[in-house]
Amino acid sequence: MRRSAQRIQGLGFILWHARHEFYHILLGLLWAWFLREWWHEFNLRWIWLSLFASLLPDADHFLYFFAYGKKESYAQEAKKLFKTKQWRDLVAFLENGHKYNTSLATHNVYFMFLLFGLAGASSFIEWRVGVILFGAMVVHYVFDILDDMLQLGYLNPNWKRWGRAKRL
Question: Residue 73 belongs to what domain range?
Answer without folding.
Answer: 2-160
